[in-house]
TrEMBL record, chain A:
Record-level GO cellular component terms: nucleolar ribonuclease P complex
Ranges for region Disordered: 288-307
Protein name: Uncharacterized protein
Organism: Australozyma saopauloensis
Basic and acidic residues bias locations: 293-307
A biological process from GO: tRNA processing
SUPFAM superfamilies (alphabetical): PHP domain-like
Signal peptide: none
Localization: Nucleus
Main localization (coarse): nucleus
TrEMBL record, chain B:
Record protein name field: Ribonuclease P protein subunit
Primary localisation category: nucleus
Bias type Basic and acidic residues, positions: 52-68
GO cellular component, as recorded: nucleus; ribonuclease MRP complex; ribonuclease P complex
Record-level Gene Ontology MF annotations: ribonuclease P RNA binding
Location of this chain's protein in the cell: Nucleus
Similarity-based family: Belongs to the eukaryotic/archaeal RNase P protein component 1 family.
BP-aspect Gene Ontology terms: rRNA processing; tRNA 5'-leader removal
Residues covered by region (Disordered): 52-72
Amino acid sequence: MYDLNVVWPSQEYTAPTPAQLENLYNTISMLHSFGYNYLAINFIVPESVKLPQSKAQALNPIPMADLRHRFRGFPKLRLFSRITLVLSDPAKCQSVLKINNTGAFDIVAVQPMTEKSLQLTTANLDIDLISLPMATRWPFFLKHKTVGQALSKGIKFELCYSGLIGGPAGYQSASALGVTGKISRKQFLSNSLQLIRASRSQGLVLSSGAAEPMNVRNHVDILAIFSQLDLRTSNCKEGFMKNPEAVLIKGRLRITSNKQTVMLGGHSADGETRGSIMLEGEASNALKSYKRKREDGEENAKKQNLQ
Amino acid sequence: MHTDYPVEKHLLSRSYTSEAQILQILETRYAGSEAAAQPFLALVPTSSESAPIKEKTETTLNRNEARKPAGARKLNVRRDMRVYIKRTLSNQRAAVSKLRQCQKKGEQISIENLLSSFKIPKYDEYIQLNELWKKYMSELLFLEQKNPDLTLLLPRLSSADYNGCLLTVLESRDMNIIGITGIVLFDAQHLFIVVTPQKKHSDRNISAAEQLGGLRFLRKKGTLFGFSLAVDENEYIDFTIMGSRFELRAVDRTAKKFKSHKVEDIY
């Protein structure tokens, strides 16, 4: 199963504290023990933060190689990186295009705060995921037409259930939620009703948004809640399986292919599921050294195959 | 300023029957108007090249008649190809059934003889085509520099020609064609028509069709094709073609502007 939203502790380009990192490690291992094998570390960028666009290396603050090395003991666990750009001013969307070119992140997501920026993201931008803010009131009415337009381009919608469990200030007991917490929870329910209605239960990516190990939930529990919110039960598990996979593959193809026609690499075809061929290796590595050394006896092997 | 005005004459001949009247109109057409007084660039043929230009105008006037033979030739080529493919396929079916019968009876039969008697295309004959294609590809991609940028390389690949490419089916919705390797004979809109080699050694049982090789149709939809290109002697680059995005004729693909869509149909 997939979980495309494991929150990176820092919202800027400052390194997180060791305690925060420890928390992240625990969250990842907790998610893995719940059966989520494909995880994306989510780096949320508020609009005020300036991206270091000149240097492609500095764009991604998440030490993916370090994380992968740390979790090498779990062979099934796959880690990806994701960036979520908060957009309220449509004029500032130029940064998205530049991120696309570098291939620093596996997934590029956008959090539109206004109707204009939502329209722009669905119509023009080449991104993978739209993550609407679930805890605040939307200043617009979500139309099925807008959602359908995005879905036909392959952009999925994220339904992040952290607001349901943690509230705005992380995990607390229900009595300690406070007034704002209760309002945000109420807001979350009405927002998810809107999203489920506008998308007709299709193209939704369910994700945890877990900042702490305690925020992780089993997918069955989540689906039980969302079935009360009119999520169609016949294909609701797609939100954990098929749709996030499509998001990952689209992100990969955006980096390594020319508009999904010819992709770089992909001769090691022994994946167990369909589409897994496209998630082999790392995109950023694939871009750096795309040449393959001739393996010993390859020609012989080829000839034998042919005969 | 004296020319024949062939185009105008041709047009006027639709409205007027007498030659003299047309000539008169042609001579007096700008008289008295402002256009006659204005200087303009006259495209008068020079004396030496007058003859070929006249020929040219004649051909443009009679374009309708000139078009016919080219169209007919195109049709003929297409028809011949269709006939060839159909005949080869039916031959192949006959050869496979014959081989099966012989195997059932326990008779020994030479595959080489079968191939030549049924006129099944042999893989070895098409290796030359593959060499030509490799040369074309390396000229297309690595002529200017040995390590081209990916943003330069991939768009060229998506509008390149794949007749003669050695393809392998990596993944497909059609389980029967996974793993097939062959040289592309024709890049049709929805299919790659490939020539496959004869299989001789394998871990599992080889079917009669695999033993004979010959033509195979590979559906593009929902299939991933892999191919690799040699940069120099010991370095390769692997590529994967998304069949679902390649459902265009090669001619149309060169001019097509591709767009990203949802990816569910690719794999």
